[in-house]
C-alpha cells in the first residue's frame, strides 16, 4: 500500500461492517484520525499498538491537514476514519481539497452507510415496485442551512422513500414539515444507533414519532425513515418473474412450476 492519506468509511457502528480494505488499512496505519463522536472505539483495537490516534472532534480542519501532510512527508500511512461512508455528511470534500492544494496524495475507501444499516434494522427495502423507486437522503435545517428548494416540506412532495440524518434533536419540527408533503399518517421509523449493540427501533407515523422518541429519551444518533415503503403493499419484481425475460434468462412458461399430476 502506498504512503498517502486514506479516507476510510468505518461503517455504521458494528466493527464487522467496515470493509476488508478499510480493515487492512487500519491495521497498517501509522497515523489514525478518527471521528470520535460517532466511530465505534472498538475499531481502534484493529490498529497497531504504536499507531498514533487522534480524535478529530477537538481539531480544526487546518490542524488535521497539517498533521496528515506532515505524516505523509515522513513516509507514514495515514487513515482518516469517518463514520458510515465518507461521502455523506463527513465534511470530507474540504479535507480532500486541502490535501490536493498541498500536493498530498489521498484515496477514498467507501464504507457502509448508516442508512443501509437502518433499512436492515427495519427489514424493509427503500425501492419497492409500485411504491417508490427513489430514496432521498437529507437533513433538517438547523444551524447549518440547506440550499433553497431542499426544505423538508418540498422534498416530501415527491412522496419518495426518505432517510433523515442529523435531525434527532429537532424531530418535532422535522416531522411536522415532512407531514406537509407526505401526510401525518405516513409510516415512520426512528432507528437509534443502527447496527450498534444498543440499537433501538421505534415505529409510528409522522404524527406521533417525535412524541415516541421523546418518551424513549432519544435526541441524537438516530435516523428517521419515512415513506410508504415501510408498510405499503408492493408489486412483484419483474426481475424474477417467470413471465419476464431478459439477457440472462429467457421468458418461462408461467405454469412451469405446476405439478404435472
Task: Kindly list the characteristics that best describe this protein.
261 residues; Cobalt-precorrin-4 Transmethylase, domain 1; Methyltransferase, Cobalt-precorrin-4 Transmethylase, Domain 2; five-stranded mixed beta sheet; 10 strands; disordered C terminus
Helix content: 10-25%
- Bin the strand percentage: 15-25%
Q: Tell me which CATH architecture of the largest domain applies here.
A: 2-Layer Sandwich
Morphology? globular
Largest sheet, in brief, is: 5 strands, parallel
Q: Going across the major beta sheet, what is the strand order?
A: 3-2-4-1-5
Rg, alpha carbons: 22 Å
Name the poorly predicted regions: 255-261
| Ends apart, CA distance between termini | 62 Å
How many helix segments?
Answer: 7
CATH class of the largest domain: Alpha Beta
What is the total tally of β strands? 10
Question: Mind explaining what this structure looks like?
Answer:
It is a single chain. This protein has helices at residues 20-28, 61-73, 93-101, 114-122, 152-156, 171-182, 209-215, and strands at residues 5-9, 31-34, 52-55, 78-82, 106-109, 135-139, 161-165, 187-192, 200-205, 222-226. It is of the alpha/beta class and 261 residues long. Helix 5 links the parallel strand 6 and strand 7 (161-165). It has a five-stranded parallel sheet, with helices on both faces. The chain has a five-stranded mixed sheet with strand order 6-7-10-8-9, with helices on both faces. The protein folds into two domains: 5-109, 3-Layer(aba) Sandwich (Cobalt-precorrin-4 Transmethylase, domain 1), CATH 3.40.1010; 114-230, Tetrapyrrole methylase, C-terminal domain (Methyltransferase, Cobalt-precorrin-4 Transmethylase, Domain 2, 2-Layer Sandwich). The longest helix has 13 residues, at 61-73. The chain has seven helices and ten strands. The N and C termini lie far apart (62 Å).
Amino acid at each position: 500500500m502506498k504512503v498517502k492519506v486514506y479516507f476510510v468509511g468505518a461503517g455504521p457502528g458494528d466493527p464487522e461492517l467496515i470493509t476488508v480494505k478499510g480493515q487492512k488499512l487500519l491495521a497498517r496505519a501509522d497515523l489514525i484520525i478518527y471521528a470520535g463522536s460517532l466511530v465505534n472505539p472498538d475499531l481502534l483495537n484493529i490498529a497497531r499498538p504504536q499507531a498514533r490516534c487522534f480524535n478529530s472532534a477537538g481539531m480544526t480542519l487546518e490542524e488535521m491537514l497539517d498533521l496528515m501532510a506532515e505524516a505523509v512527508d515522513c513516509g507514514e500511512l495515514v487513515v482518516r476514519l469517518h463514520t458510515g461512508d465518507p461521502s455523506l455528511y463527513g465534511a470530507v470534500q474540504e479535507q480532500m481539497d486541502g490535501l490536493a492544494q498541498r500536493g498530498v496524495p489521498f484515496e477514498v475507501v467507501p464504507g457502509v452507510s448508516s442508512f443501509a444499516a437502518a433499512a436492515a434494522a427495519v427489514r424493509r427495502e427503500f425501492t419497492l415496485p409500485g411504491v417508490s423507486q427513489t430514496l432521498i437522503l437529507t437533513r433538517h435545517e438547523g444551524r447549518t442551512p440547506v440550499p433553497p428548494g431542499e426544505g423538508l416540506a418540498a422534498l416530501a412532495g415527491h412522496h419518495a422513500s426518505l432517510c433523515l440524518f442529523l435531525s434527532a434533536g429537532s424531530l418535532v419540527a422535522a416531522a411536522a414539515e415532512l407531514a406537509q408533503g407526505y401526510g401525518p399518517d405516513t409510516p415512520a421509523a426512528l432507528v437509534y444507533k443502527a447496527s450498534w449493540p444498543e440499537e433501538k427501533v421505534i415505529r409510528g407515523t409522522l404524527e406521533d414519532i417525535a412524541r415516541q422518541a421523546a418518551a424513549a429519551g432519544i435526541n441524537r444518533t438516530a435516523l428517521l425513515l419515512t415513506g410508504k415503503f415501510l408498510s405499503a403493499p408492493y408489486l412483484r419484481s419483474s426481475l424474477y418473474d417467470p413471465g419476464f425475460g431478459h439477457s440472462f434468462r429467457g421468458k418461462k412458461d408461467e405454469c412451469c412450476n405446476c405439478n404435472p399430476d
